[in-house]
Design goal:
With 564 residues, the chain is α/β, with parallel strands linked by helices. Helix content is 21%, strand content 15%.
Length: 564
Protein backbone atom coordinates (compact mmCIF):
# COMPACT_ATOMS: atom_id res chain seq x y z
CA UNK A 1 0.00 0.00 0.00
CA UNK A 2 1.19 3.53 -0.76
CA UNK A 3 2.40 5.49 2.24
CA UNK A 4 0.49 8.69 3.00
CA UNK A 5 2.79 11.72 3.05
CA UNK A 6 2.78 13.55 6.38
CA UNK A 7 3.97 17.13 5.97
CA UNK A 8 5.43 19.13 8.81
CA UNK A 9 3.10 22.02 7.99
CA UNK A 10 0.22 22.54 5.60
CA UNK A 11 -0.24 26.20 4.66
CA UNK A 12 -3.53 27.39 3.18
CA UNK A 13 -3.13 30.41 0.91
CA UNK A 14 -0.25 31.95 -1.04
CA UNK A 15 -0.62 35.71 -0.54
CA UNK A 16 0.61 38.16 2.07
CA UNK A 17 -0.08 35.76 4.94
CA UNK A 18 0.02 32.25 3.47
CA UNK A 19 2.86 32.91 1.05
CA UNK A 20 5.02 34.60 3.67
CA UNK A 21 4.27 31.87 6.23
CA UNK A 22 5.15 29.13 3.73
CA UNK A 23 8.43 30.86 2.87
CA UNK A 24 9.37 31.31 6.53
CA UNK A 25 8.62 27.68 7.38
CA UNK A 26 10.34 26.28 4.30
CA UNK A 27 13.51 28.29 4.93
CA UNK A 28 13.59 26.74 8.42
CA UNK A 29 13.90 23.34 6.75
CA UNK A 30 10.36 22.11 7.43
CA UNK A 31 8.51 19.99 4.89
CA UNK A 32 5.80 22.39 3.70
CA UNK A 33 2.76 21.92 1.47
CA UNK A 34 1.17 25.17 0.27
CA UNK A 35 -2.38 24.96 -1.09
CA UNK A 36 -3.64 27.72 -3.37
CA UNK A 37 -7.25 27.87 -4.58
CA UNK A 38 -6.32 29.45 -7.91
CA UNK A 39 -3.90 28.98 -10.77
CA UNK A 40 -0.26 29.81 -11.32
CA UNK A 41 0.21 33.25 -12.85
CA UNK A 42 2.66 34.06 -15.64
CA UNK A 43 3.22 37.83 -15.37
CA UNK A 44 4.27 38.36 -18.99
CA UNK A 45 1.02 36.71 -20.14
CA UNK A 46 -1.49 37.49 -17.40
CA UNK A 47 -0.61 41.11 -16.63
CA UNK A 48 -1.55 43.89 -19.05
CA UNK A 49 -0.11 46.81 -17.10
CA UNK A 50 1.41 48.52 -20.16
CA UNK A 51 -1.70 48.33 -22.32
CA UNK A 52 -3.38 51.76 -22.63
CA UNK A 53 -7.14 52.16 -22.40
CA UNK A 54 -7.60 52.98 -26.08
CA UNK A 55 -6.25 49.55 -27.05
CA UNK A 56 -9.03 47.71 -25.23
CA UNK A 57 -12.24 47.04 -27.14
CA UNK A 58 -14.31 48.72 -24.43
CA UNK A 59 -11.64 51.20 -23.32
CA UNK A 60 -10.86 49.05 -20.29
CA UNK A 61 -14.38 49.07 -18.86
CA UNK A 62 -15.45 45.74 -20.31
CA UNK A 63 -18.49 44.96 -22.40
CA UNK A 64 -21.62 46.52 -20.86
CA UNK A 65 -23.09 44.03 -18.41
CA UNK A 66 -20.06 41.74 -18.61
CA UNK A 67 -19.31 41.95 -14.90
CA UNK A 68 -22.87 42.32 -13.66
CA UNK A 69 -23.63 44.91 -10.99
CA UNK A 70 -20.43 45.28 -9.02
CA UNK A 71 -20.62 46.25 -5.34
CA UNK A 72 -19.06 49.53 -4.28
CA UNK A 73 -15.29 49.21 -4.23
CA UNK A 74 -15.06 46.57 -6.95
CA UNK A 75 -15.99 48.85 -9.84
CA UNK A 76 -12.45 50.28 -9.91
CA UNK A 77 -10.76 46.90 -9.45
CA UNK A 78 -12.48 44.66 -11.97
CA UNK A 79 -11.96 45.75 -15.56
CA UNK A 80 -10.43 44.51 -18.79
CA UNK A 81 -6.94 44.66 -17.30
CA UNK A 82 -7.86 42.48 -14.31
CA UNK A 83 -10.95 40.38 -15.08
CA UNK A 84 -8.68 37.36 -15.55
CA UNK A 85 -7.51 37.79 -11.96
CA UNK A 86 -10.46 38.70 -9.73
CA UNK A 87 -13.46 36.56 -8.86
CA UNK A 88 -16.52 38.30 -10.32
CA UNK A 89 -19.40 38.34 -7.79
CA UNK A 90 -22.19 37.39 -10.20
CA UNK A 91 -20.17 34.26 -11.12
CA UNK A 92 -19.68 33.26 -7.48
CA UNK A 93 -22.12 35.17 -5.22
CA UNK A 94 -22.07 35.53 -1.45
CA UNK A 95 -24.97 36.40 0.86
CA UNK A 96 -25.89 39.59 2.68
CA UNK A 97 -28.30 39.82 5.59
CA UNK A 98 -31.11 42.39 5.18
CA UNK A 99 -29.61 45.88 5.31
CA UNK A 100 -26.02 44.62 5.29
CA UNK A 101 -23.28 45.70 2.90
CA UNK A 102 -19.91 44.07 2.31
CA UNK A 103 -17.56 44.19 -0.65
CA UNK A 104 -15.63 40.94 -0.81
CA UNK A 105 -12.57 41.20 -3.03
CA UNK A 106 -11.42 37.73 -4.07
CA UNK A 107 -8.36 36.92 -6.14
CA UNK A 108 -7.64 33.23 -6.53
CA UNK A 109 -4.15 32.85 -7.96
CA UNK A 110 -0.63 32.24 -6.69
CA UNK A 111 0.30 35.48 -4.96
CA UNK A 112 -3.26 36.30 -3.93
CA UNK A 113 -4.02 39.97 -3.53
CA UNK A 114 -0.31 40.87 -3.43
CA UNK A 115 -0.57 40.71 -7.24
CA UNK A 116 -2.50 43.99 -7.28
CA UNK A 117 -2.21 45.53 -3.79
CA UNK A 118 -1.76 49.21 -2.99
CA UNK A 119 1.79 48.70 -1.60
CA UNK A 120 1.46 51.13 1.33
CA UNK A 121 3.55 49.58 4.10
CA UNK A 122 3.60 51.63 7.29
CA UNK A 123 4.17 50.06 10.67
CA UNK A 124 1.59 50.08 13.44
CA UNK A 125 2.81 52.06 16.45
CA UNK A 126 2.92 51.26 20.20
CA UNK A 127 -0.48 52.85 20.85
CA UNK A 128 -2.10 50.83 18.06
CA UNK A 129 -1.41 47.57 19.90
CA UNK A 130 -2.79 48.91 23.18
CA UNK A 131 -5.79 51.06 22.19
CA UNK A 132 -7.86 50.19 25.24
CA UNK A 133 -5.26 50.81 27.94
CA UNK A 134 -3.20 53.53 26.23
CA UNK A 135 -5.79 55.49 24.23
CA UNK A 136 -9.44 55.64 25.27
CA UNK A 137 -10.65 52.47 27.00
CA UNK A 138 -12.62 51.15 24.02
CA UNK A 139 -12.22 47.67 22.56
CA UNK A 140 -9.42 45.33 23.57
CA UNK A 141 -5.63 45.39 23.66
CA UNK A 142 -3.54 43.08 21.52
CA UNK A 143 -1.75 40.36 23.51
CA UNK A 144 1.53 41.63 22.03
CA UNK A 145 3.32 44.98 22.04
CA UNK A 146 5.05 46.97 19.32
CA UNK A 147 8.36 45.84 20.81
CA UNK A 148 7.29 42.20 20.35
CA UNK A 149 6.64 42.76 16.64
CA UNK A 150 9.42 45.26 15.92
CA UNK A 151 12.10 42.70 14.92
CA UNK A 152 9.61 41.05 12.57
CA UNK A 153 8.81 44.39 10.95
CA UNK A 154 12.55 44.63 10.35
CA UNK A 155 12.62 41.17 8.75
CA UNK A 156 9.55 41.86 6.64
CA UNK A 157 10.90 45.11 5.24
CA UNK A 158 14.20 43.44 4.37
CA UNK A 159 12.33 40.59 2.69
CA UNK A 160 9.92 42.61 0.54
CA UNK A 161 12.01 45.69 -0.33
CA UNK A 162 10.86 49.08 0.94
CA UNK A 163 11.28 52.62 -0.36
CA UNK A 164 10.54 55.68 1.75
CA UNK A 165 9.10 55.72 5.25
CA UNK A 166 12.46 56.41 6.84
CA UNK A 167 11.26 59.30 9.00
CA UNK A 168 9.52 58.49 12.27
CA UNK A 169 6.44 60.40 13.45
CA UNK A 170 4.70 59.97 16.81
CA UNK A 171 3.19 56.45 16.85
CA UNK A 172 4.21 55.91 13.21
CA UNK A 173 7.64 54.26 13.49
CA UNK A 174 10.17 54.58 10.71
CA UNK A 175 11.22 51.76 8.44
CA UNK A 176 14.70 50.55 9.35
CA UNK A 177 15.42 49.04 5.93
CA UNK A 178 14.26 51.85 3.69
CA UNK A 179 15.61 52.45 0.21
CA UNK A 180 15.51 56.09 -0.93
CA UNK A 181 12.04 57.60 -1.11
CA UNK A 182 10.50 58.37 -4.47
CA UNK A 183 10.61 62.00 -5.58
CA UNK A 184 7.47 63.95 -4.77
CA UNK A 185 5.38 65.48 -7.54
CA UNK A 186 4.92 69.27 -7.76
CA UNK A 187 1.42 69.15 -6.31
CA UNK A 188 2.53 66.95 -3.41
CA UNK A 189 5.15 69.55 -2.46
CA UNK A 190 2.49 72.28 -2.52
CA UNK A 191 0.34 70.16 -0.19
CA UNK A 192 3.34 69.65 2.08
CA UNK A 193 3.79 73.44 2.37
CA UNK A 194 0.08 73.96 3.00
CA UNK A 195 -0.12 71.25 5.65
CA UNK A 196 2.92 72.73 7.42
CA UNK A 197 1.01 76.03 7.79
CA UNK A 198 -1.61 74.07 9.74
CA UNK A 199 0.97 72.30 11.91
CA UNK A 200 0.68 68.97 10.09
CA UNK A 201 3.79 66.99 9.18
CA UNK A 202 4.08 65.44 5.71
CA UNK A 203 6.55 62.56 5.20
CA UNK A 204 7.50 60.05 2.52
CA UNK A 205 5.10 57.16 2.08
CA UNK A 206 6.60 53.74 2.88
CA UNK A 207 6.02 51.71 -0.28
CA UNK A 208 6.82 48.10 -1.15
CA UNK A 209 8.18 49.32 -4.50
CA UNK A 210 11.87 49.46 -5.35
CA UNK A 211 13.47 52.86 -5.95
CA UNK A 212 16.77 51.04 -6.56
CA UNK A 213 17.65 47.50 -7.68
CA UNK A 214 17.34 45.11 -4.74
CA UNK A 215 17.58 41.36 -4.20
CA UNK A 216 18.14 40.71 -7.93
CA UNK A 217 14.99 42.71 -8.74
CA UNK A 218 14.77 45.72 -11.02
CA UNK A 219 13.94 49.21 -9.83
CA UNK A 220 10.53 50.65 -10.66
CA UNK A 221 10.35 52.06 -14.21
CA UNK A 222 7.43 54.40 -13.39
CA UNK A 223 4.70 52.90 -15.55
CA UNK A 224 2.21 53.77 -12.80
CA UNK A 225 0.17 50.62 -13.34
CA UNK A 226 0.83 48.60 -10.15
CA UNK A 227 -2.88 47.92 -9.68
CA UNK A 228 -2.82 45.88 -12.90
CA UNK A 229 0.16 43.74 -11.86
CA UNK A 230 3.91 44.20 -12.22
CA UNK A 231 5.91 42.15 -14.71
CA UNK A 232 9.34 43.31 -13.49
CA UNK A 233 8.94 42.33 -9.78
CA UNK A 234 9.68 45.94 -8.87
CA UNK A 235 6.81 45.96 -6.44
CA UNK A 236 6.54 43.09 -3.99
CA UNK A 237 4.31 40.11 -4.56
CA UNK A 238 4.80 36.64 -3.16
CA UNK A 239 4.41 35.25 -6.69
CA UNK A 240 7.46 37.02 -8.08
CA UNK A 241 9.67 37.35 -5.00
CA UNK A 242 9.10 34.35 -2.72
CA UNK A 243 7.77 31.49 -4.84
CA UNK A 244 10.74 31.38 -7.25
CA UNK A 245 12.95 30.83 -4.18
CA UNK A 246 10.67 28.26 -2.58
CA UNK A 247 10.22 26.22 -5.71
CA UNK A 248 13.95 25.51 -5.70
CA UNK A 249 13.67 23.93 -2.24
CA UNK A 250 13.20 20.12 -2.12
CA UNK A 251 11.19 20.44 1.11
CA UNK A 252 8.53 22.70 -0.45
CA UNK A 253 5.49 21.66 -2.49
CA UNK A 254 2.93 23.96 -4.09
CA UNK A 255 -0.44 22.62 -5.19
CA UNK A 256 -2.59 25.01 -7.19
CA UNK A 257 -6.34 24.81 -7.95
CA UNK A 258 -6.93 23.43 -4.45
CA UNK A 259 -9.90 25.01 -2.64
CA UNK A 260 -9.65 24.05 1.02
CA UNK A 261 -13.07 23.39 2.54
CA UNK A 262 -12.30 22.13 6.05
CA UNK A 263 -9.65 21.34 8.61
CA UNK A 264 -9.35 17.68 9.58
CA UNK A 265 -9.13 16.74 13.25
CA UNK A 266 -7.62 13.81 15.14
CA UNK A 267 -10.23 12.90 17.75
CA UNK A 268 -7.72 11.07 19.92
CA UNK A 269 -5.34 14.00 20.32
CA UNK A 270 -7.73 16.89 19.73
CA UNK A 271 -5.24 18.34 17.26
CA UNK A 272 -5.55 19.34 13.63
CA UNK A 273 -4.32 16.51 11.40
CA UNK A 274 -4.62 18.08 7.94
CA UNK A 275 -7.15 19.58 5.54
CA UNK A 276 -9.48 18.48 2.78
CA UNK A 277 -9.75 20.39 -0.49
CA UNK A 278 -11.59 20.37 -3.79
CA UNK A 279 -9.47 20.17 -6.94
CA UNK A 280 -11.02 22.76 -9.25
CA UNK A 281 -9.85 20.93 -12.38
CA UNK A 282 -11.78 17.72 -11.66
CA UNK A 283 -14.07 18.67 -8.72
CA UNK A 284 -12.74 15.73 -6.70
CA UNK A 285 -12.14 15.99 -2.95
CA UNK A 286 -8.74 15.13 -1.50
CA UNK A 287 -7.23 14.95 1.98
CA UNK A 288 -3.68 15.87 2.99
CA UNK A 289 -2.07 15.49 6.38
CA UNK A 290 0.41 17.42 8.46
CA UNK A 291 1.71 17.97 11.99
CA UNK A 292 0.37 21.53 11.95
CA UNK A 293 -1.99 23.60 9.83
CA UNK A 294 -1.50 27.31 9.08
CA UNK A 295 -4.50 29.11 7.62
CA UNK A 296 -3.71 32.27 5.67
CA UNK A 297 -6.34 32.30 2.95
CA UNK A 298 -7.34 35.95 3.63
CA UNK A 299 -9.77 36.98 6.33
CA UNK A 300 -13.13 35.87 4.95
CA UNK A 301 -11.90 32.61 3.43
CA UNK A 302 -10.06 31.67 6.64
CA UNK A 303 -13.20 32.28 8.70
CA UNK A 304 -15.27 30.29 6.21
CA UNK A 305 -12.89 27.33 6.51
CA UNK A 306 -13.12 27.36 10.33
CA UNK A 307 -16.92 27.61 10.28
CA UNK A 308 -17.21 24.80 7.73
CA UNK A 309 -14.93 22.63 9.88
CA UNK A 310 -17.47 22.48 12.71
CA UNK A 311 -17.76 19.11 14.42
CA UNK A 312 -19.20 17.49 17.53
CA UNK A 313 -16.69 19.19 19.83
CA UNK A 314 -17.07 22.58 18.10
CA UNK A 315 -20.64 22.78 16.76
CA UNK A 316 -20.44 26.60 16.25
CA UNK A 317 -17.24 26.46 14.23
CA UNK A 318 -13.80 25.03 14.78
CA UNK A 319 -11.84 26.64 17.64
CA UNK A 320 -14.90 28.71 18.59
CA UNK A 321 -15.35 27.92 22.27
CA UNK A 322 -15.31 31.68 22.89
CA UNK A 323 -18.23 32.34 20.54
CA UNK A 324 -16.28 35.22 18.98
CA UNK A 325 -15.37 33.52 15.68
CA UNK A 326 -16.56 35.70 12.82
CA UNK A 327 -17.29 38.69 15.07
CA UNK A 328 -15.67 42.10 15.56
CA UNK A 329 -15.08 42.65 11.86
CA UNK A 330 -13.40 45.95 11.04
CA UNK A 331 -12.50 48.13 8.06
CA UNK A 332 -11.09 51.60 7.55
CA UNK A 333 -13.50 54.51 7.61
CA UNK A 334 -13.29 55.62 3.97
CA UNK A 335 -15.30 57.79 1.59
CA UNK A 336 -14.91 59.92 -1.54
CA UNK A 337 -11.89 62.11 -2.15
CA UNK A 338 -12.03 65.88 -2.50
CA UNK A 339 -10.75 67.14 -5.85
CA UNK A 340 -9.52 70.47 -7.11
CA UNK A 341 -6.66 72.11 -8.93
CA UNK A 342 -3.72 74.42 -8.34
CA UNK A 343 -4.15 77.68 -10.30
CA UNK A 344 -0.38 78.19 -10.26
CA UNK A 345 0.10 74.88 -12.10
CA UNK A 346 -2.67 75.46 -14.66
CA UNK A 347 -1.50 75.71 -18.24
CA UNK A 348 1.86 74.07 -17.59
CA UNK A 349 3.11 71.54 -20.15
CA UNK A 350 1.87 68.00 -19.59
CA UNK A 351 4.51 65.69 -18.10
CA UNK A 352 4.69 62.01 -17.18
CA UNK A 353 3.84 62.01 -13.48
CA UNK A 354 3.02 58.29 -13.18
CA UNK A 355 5.84 57.59 -10.72
CA UNK A 356 5.67 54.42 -8.59
CA UNK A 357 1.90 54.02 -9.02
CA UNK A 358 1.12 55.60 -5.65
CA UNK A 359 1.54 58.86 -3.79
CA UNK A 360 5.09 59.60 -2.63
CA UNK A 361 4.07 61.68 0.42
CA UNK A 362 1.36 61.37 3.05
CA UNK A 363 0.14 63.07 6.23
CA UNK A 364 0.27 60.65 9.21
CA UNK A 365 -2.21 60.81 12.06
CA UNK A 366 -1.65 64.02 14.00
CA UNK A 367 -4.56 64.32 16.46
CA UNK A 368 -3.20 62.28 19.40
CA UNK A 369 -3.02 65.30 21.70
CA UNK A 370 -6.47 66.55 20.70
CA UNK A 371 -9.24 64.50 22.30
CA UNK A 372 -12.65 64.76 20.68
CA UNK A 373 -16.00 64.34 22.39
CA UNK A 374 -17.49 63.26 19.05
CA UNK A 375 -15.29 60.35 17.96
CA UNK A 376 -12.51 57.99 19.02
CA UNK A 377 -9.06 57.52 17.45
CA UNK A 378 -7.92 59.29 14.29
CA UNK A 379 -7.06 59.33 10.60
CA UNK A 380 -4.37 60.04 7.99
CA UNK A 381 -4.39 61.59 4.53
CA UNK A 382 -2.95 60.77 1.12
CA UNK A 383 -2.72 63.02 -1.92
CA UNK A 384 -2.77 62.40 -5.67
CA UNK A 385 -1.53 65.06 -8.07
CA UNK A 386 -0.17 65.57 -11.55
CA UNK A 387 -0.82 64.12 -14.99
CA UNK A 388 -2.24 60.61 -15.11
CA UNK A 389 -4.27 58.33 -17.37
CA UNK A 390 -7.52 60.20 -16.66
CA UNK A 391 -8.46 63.63 -18.07
CA UNK A 392 -8.09 65.44 -14.76
CA UNK A 393 -10.36 67.93 -12.97
CA UNK A 394 -11.50 69.67 -16.16
CA UNK A 395 -13.63 66.66 -17.05
CA UNK A 396 -15.80 67.34 -13.99
CA UNK A 397 -16.68 70.85 -15.18
CA UNK A 398 -19.66 71.58 -17.44
CA UNK A 399 -19.03 72.54 -21.06
CA UNK A 400 -18.74 71.49 -24.68
CA UNK A 401 -16.66 72.28 -27.74
CA UNK A 402 -13.24 73.82 -28.27
CA UNK A 403 -13.35 76.12 -25.23
CA UNK A 404 -14.21 73.16 -23.01
CA UNK A 405 -11.34 71.11 -24.46
CA UNK A 406 -8.95 73.98 -23.88
CA UNK A 407 -10.04 74.21 -20.24
CA UNK A 408 -9.43 70.49 -19.72
CA UNK A 409 -5.97 70.88 -21.23
CA UNK A 410 -5.20 73.81 -18.93
CA UNK A 411 -6.27 72.03 -15.76
CA UNK A 412 -4.86 68.59 -16.62
CA UNK A 413 -1.39 69.14 -15.06
CA UNK A 414 -2.87 71.07 -12.11
CA UNK A 415 -5.04 68.27 -10.67
CA UNK A 416 -5.08 67.46 -6.95
CA UNK A 417 -7.21 65.11 -4.87
CA UNK A 418 -6.99 64.30 -1.20
CA UNK A 419 -8.49 61.37 0.67
CA UNK A 420 -7.89 59.46 3.85
CA UNK A 421 -8.53 56.50 6.08
CA UNK A 422 -9.90 56.64 9.59
CA UNK A 423 -9.63 53.95 12.25
CA UNK A 424 -12.42 51.38 12.12
CA UNK A 425 -13.77 50.18 15.45
CA UNK A 426 -14.57 46.56 16.43
CA UNK A 427 -18.21 45.82 17.25
CA UNK A 428 -19.69 42.42 18.03
CA UNK A 429 -22.65 43.15 15.73
CA UNK A 430 -20.39 43.33 12.67
CA UNK A 431 -20.02 39.65 11.88
CA UNK A 432 -20.01 36.93 9.24
CA UNK A 433 -21.54 33.44 9.36
CA UNK A 434 -22.25 30.52 7.05
CA UNK A 435 -25.38 31.34 5.07
CA UNK A 436 -28.31 29.68 6.88
CA UNK A 437 -30.28 29.47 3.62
CA UNK A 438 -27.81 27.01 2.14
CA UNK A 439 -25.98 29.14 -0.44
CA UNK A 440 -22.92 27.32 -1.77
CA UNK A 441 -20.13 28.27 -4.12
CA UNK A 442 -19.55 26.62 -7.50
CA UNK A 443 -17.79 23.69 -5.78
CA UNK A 444 -20.63 22.98 -3.36
CA UNK A 445 -18.86 24.52 -0.36
CA UNK A 446 -21.20 26.41 2.01
CA UNK A 447 -20.88 30.14 1.42
CA UNK A 448 -20.83 33.05 3.87
CA UNK A 449 -23.42 35.65 4.80
CA UNK A 450 -22.40 39.08 6.11
CA UNK A 451 -24.08 41.10 8.86
CA UNK A 452 -22.03 44.26 8.50
CA UNK A 453 -22.65 47.98 8.60
CA UNK A 454 -19.94 50.64 8.30
CA UNK A 455 -22.38 53.50 8.94
CA UNK A 456 -22.12 53.90 12.71
CA UNK A 457 -21.94 57.09 14.79
CA UNK A 458 -18.17 57.14 15.27
CA UNK A 459 -17.61 56.64 11.54
CA UNK A 460 -19.88 59.57 10.62
CA UNK A 461 -18.23 61.87 13.19
CA UNK A 462 -14.78 60.86 11.95
CA UNK A 463 -15.89 61.45 8.37
CA UNK A 464 -17.13 64.95 9.13
CA UNK A 465 -13.88 65.87 10.86
CA UNK A 466 -11.85 64.52 7.94
CA UNK A 467 -13.86 66.45 5.34
CA UNK A 468 -13.18 69.67 7.24
CA UNK A 469 -9.48 68.96 7.58
CA UNK A 470 -9.12 68.05 3.90
CA UNK A 471 -10.74 71.33 2.87
CA UNK A 472 -8.37 73.25 5.14
CA UNK A 473 -5.31 71.50 3.73
CA UNK A 474 -6.31 72.18 0.12
CA UNK A 475 -7.04 75.85 0.76
CA UNK A 476 -3.84 76.33 2.75
CA UNK A 477 -1.97 74.81 -0.20
CA UNK A 478 -3.45 77.28 -2.66
CA UNK A 479 -5.80 74.83 -4.37
CA UNK A 480 -9.29 75.60 -5.64
CA UNK A 481 -11.84 72.96 -4.64
CA UNK A 482 -14.39 71.56 -7.02
CA UNK A 483 -17.93 71.06 -5.67
CA UNK A 484 -18.42 67.79 -3.81
CA UNK A 485 -21.11 65.87 -1.99
CA UNK A 486 -20.56 64.23 1.36
CA UNK A 487 -20.81 60.46 1.07
CA UNK A 488 -21.66 57.89 3.69
CA UNK A 489 -18.75 55.74 4.86
CA UNK A 490 -18.03 53.06 2.26
CA UNK A 491 -19.12 49.45 2.95
CA UNK A 492 -16.76 47.14 4.78
CA UNK A 493 -14.29 45.51 2.43
CA UNK A 494 -14.54 48.27 -0.18
CA UNK A 495 -10.91 49.34 0.25
CA UNK A 496 -9.73 45.74 0.74
CA UNK A 497 -8.48 46.37 4.29
CA UNK A 498 -10.98 44.17 6.13
CA UNK A 499 -9.78 42.60 9.39
CA UNK A 500 -10.95 40.73 12.47
CA UNK A 501 -13.15 37.71 13.08
CA UNK A 502 -10.58 35.48 14.82
CA UNK A 503 -8.89 38.01 17.03
CA UNK A 504 -5.86 37.42 19.21
CA UNK A 505 -6.02 37.72 22.98
CA UNK A 506 -4.77 36.40 26.30
CA UNK A 507 -8.29 35.47 27.44
CA UNK A 508 -9.57 32.35 25.66
CA UNK A 509 -13.13 33.33 26.58
CA UNK A 510 -12.92 36.56 24.56
CA UNK A 511 -10.67 35.64 21.63
CA UNK A 512 -9.91 32.86 19.15
CA UNK A 513 -6.10 33.06 18.91
CA UNK A 514 -3.29 33.42 21.41
CA UNK A 515 -0.26 35.71 21.18
CA UNK A 516 1.41 33.36 18.66
CA UNK A 517 -1.60 33.16 16.30
CA UNK A 518 -2.43 29.66 17.57
CA UNK A 519 -6.04 28.77 18.23
CA UNK A 520 -6.64 28.65 21.99
CA UNK A 521 -8.59 25.44 21.51
CA UNK A 522 -6.23 23.73 19.02
CA UNK A 523 -2.60 24.68 19.48
CA UNK A 524 -1.32 23.24 16.18
CA UNK A 525 -3.85 25.25 14.15
CA UNK A 526 -2.79 28.80 13.33
CA UNK A 527 -4.52 31.71 11.59
CA UNK A 528 -2.02 34.24 10.25
CA UNK A 529 -4.00 36.70 8.11
CA UNK A 530 -5.95 39.82 9.07
CA UNK A 531 -8.60 37.74 10.84
CA UNK A 532 -6.22 37.85 13.81
CA UNK A 533 -6.40 41.64 14.20
CA UNK A 534 -7.70 43.12 17.45
CA UNK A 535 -7.86 46.75 16.32
CA UNK A 536 -7.72 48.54 12.98
CA UNK A 537 -5.74 51.80 13.10
CA UNK A 538 -5.62 54.28 10.24
CA UNK A 539 -2.53 52.63 8.75
CA UNK A 540 -2.62 50.07 5.95
CA UNK A 541 -2.54 46.52 7.25
CA UNK A 542 -0.48 44.37 4.85
CA UNK A 543 2.94 44.97 6.41
CA UNK A 544 1.55 43.98 9.81
CA UNK A 545 -0.07 40.85 8.32
CA UNK A 546 3.31 39.76 6.95
CA UNK A 547 5.20 40.58 10.14
CA UNK A 548 2.71 38.55 12.21
CA UNK A 549 2.98 35.66 9.74
CA UNK A 550 6.77 35.58 10.07
CA UNK A 551 6.61 35.79 13.87
CA UNK A 552 4.01 33.03 14.18
CA UNK A 553 5.80 30.78 11.67
CA UNK A 554 9.20 31.10 13.33
CA UNK A 555 7.62 30.22 16.68
CA UNK A 556 5.84 27.23 15.15
CA UNK A 557 9.08 26.04 13.53
CA UNK A 558 10.81 26.15 16.90
CA UNK A 559 7.93 24.26 18.56
CA UNK A 560 8.13 21.53 15.93
CA UNK A 561 11.92 21.33 16.31
CA UNK A 562 11.65 20.87 20.06
CA UNK A 563 8.95 18.22 19.74
CA UNK A 564 10.83 16.20 17.11
Amino acid sequence: MATQTIYDVIVVGSGASGGVAAYTLATKGLKVLCLEAGRMIEPHKDFHNHKPAYRWTYRGHGKPGQYGKLPQGLEWKINEWTDRLYTIPHDDPYALAPGAKFTWTRLRAVGGRTLVWGRESGRFGPLDFKPKSMQDGFGEDWPITYEDLEPYYDKTEALIGMSGGGEAVFNSPASKNALPAFNARCGELLIKKGAAKLGMKTVSMPLAVLSKPYDDRLACHYCGACNFGCDTASRFSTLEVLFPKMQKMPNFTLRTNAVVNRVLMDRNSGKASGVSFIDTTNHQEYEVFGKAVVVGASMVESLRILFNSRNREFPQGLANSSGTLGRYLMEHVAFNQLTGFFPELAGRPSTNDDGPGANSLYIPRFNYAKKSDKFLRGYRFTVETGCSMGPGPGAELPGFGSAYKKRIKELYPAAVSIGGYGEGLPFEWNFVEIDPDGLTDRFGIPQVRFHTNAEYDNAFALRDEMYGQMEEILRASGAELLPYEKRNPYPMGSVTHEAGGARMGDDAKKSVLDAWNRCHDIKNLLVVDAAAFVSHPEKSITLTIMALAIRASEHLAEELRLSA
